[in-house]
Amino acid sequence: MQDFTNCEASICTIFNLDSSILESCSCIRRNEQTIIDVKLLDSRPACPECGNPITKIKGYVTKTIQHSLLADKKCVLQYHARRYICPILMLE
Q1: Which of 19, 42, 44, 61 has its Cα between 20 and 30 A from that of 55?
Q2: What is the DSSP string of 12-73?
Q3: Who contacts 19 (Cβ-Cβ below 8 Å, separation ≥6)?
Q4: What phi and psi, each to the nearest 5 degrees, are found at residue 20?
Q5: For residue range 9-24, what is the model confidence (pLDDT) as tens digits?
Q6: Exposed e or buried b for every residue in 55-72, given b needs 16+ CB within 10 A?
Q7: Is 14 within 8 Å of 5 (Cβ atoms)?
């Protein structure tokens, strides 16, 4: 496994990401396939329903993306997406 600083620049270039939004990043080679594991910084968006600026993290979902740039390669991107919940709408 490569550490964050070694793969950060390559991943940011390939996927056009700003390195300041990455929380963690790793590259793993498994069974002839490269797995790029990315987690973005917590941005805490406002609730789209009520506009409440305070949201809570409900959980995480790992999404596997086969990007078109990688279609001819044995490489996938795993993205850890946060799921948010509004504490106000939770009470209703």
Answers
A1: 19
A2: HHHHT--GGGEEEEEEEEETTEEEEEEEEPP--PPPTTT--S--EEEEEEEEEE--GGGTTS
A3: 8, 9, 12
A4: -75, -10
A5: 777 777 777 888 888 8
A6: beeeeeeeeeeeeeebee
A7: no
Structure tokens of 68?
A: 């078109």
Length of the chain: 92
What are the tens digits of pLDDT across the range 8-67? 777 777 777 788 888 888 888 888 888 888 888 888 888 888 888 888 899 999 998 876
Tokens coding 17? 């990401």
What six digits make up the tokens of 1? Answer: 């496994």
CB 11 within 8 A of CB 38: yes
